[in-house]
């Protein structure tokens, strides 16, 4: 397993800072390496990189986790920014599906590699300064992926009454992950894309006020 940690700083308006940590793991290969656990990462191992360097690293490594913290400038009372911590994990699974069109015709059953990115957020960190134990979040996502991996999604009970579109698969993943999160951690959104040409990507999120 290859582990890589990186960070880059960006400033927006009142001071939004972004940090990223990236590694690689297979959602079906079992528990994550201890090196990826949140309690083993601190600011001393986060080194700055140029935008070009970050771009090259993103192409080289399949980003599976990133941490973004947006900090409010407390000296500016008119600021519209709200302090929020974000954590995302990416997982992949392989599954078949077939979409039914409005005229009642169903496309041939076919298989995709499904790539899912899950974002969680929290206004405050827990007692050891993370949003959620990295392994706990990974376990939740892996459980959902394993349920769909190497299956015909159309045969899943959830999809007996809804069309098996990318949007519905994204919605299903969102609901399953959300139900497993502990109190104080909110699921922000789920982003999904599929292999197989220029296919549209789907995203499901709570409506923002």
Please give the number of β-strands.
Answer: 8
Counting structural domains, the number is 1
User: How large a portion of the residues is in β-strands, by DSSP E?
Assistant: 25-35%
CATH level-4 homologous superfamily: 6-pyruvoyl tetrahydropterin synthase/QueD
CATH architectural arrangement: 2-Layer Sandwich
Q: Tell me about the largest β-sheet.
A: 6 strands, antiparallel
Counting DSSP H or I runs of 4 or more residues, the number of helices is 3
CATH fold annotation: Tetrahydropterin Synthase, Chain A
N-to-C order of helices and strands: EEEHEEEHHEE
Helix content: 10-25%
**Shape designation:** elongated
Describe this structure in words.
This protein is α+β, with helices and mostly antiparallel strands and 209 residues long. The chain has one domain (3-205): Tetrahydropterin Synthase, Chain A (2-Layer Sandwich). The chain contains 3 helices and 8 strands; from the N terminus they run E-E-E-H-E-E-E-H-H-E-E. It has helices spanning 51-60, 134-148, 166-180, and strands at 3-5, 16-18, 21-23, 65-70, 84-97, 110-122, 186-194, 202-205. Strands 2-4-5-6-7-8 form a 6-stranded antiparallel beta sheet. A two-stranded antiparallel sheet has the order 1-3. The longest helix is centred in the last third of the chain and has 15 residues, at 134-148. The protein is elongated. Residues 1-78 have low confidence and may be disordered. It catalyses: 7,8-dihydroneopterin 3'-triphosphate + H2O = 6-carboxy-5,6,7,8-tetrahydropterin + triphosphate + acetaldehyde + 2 H(+).
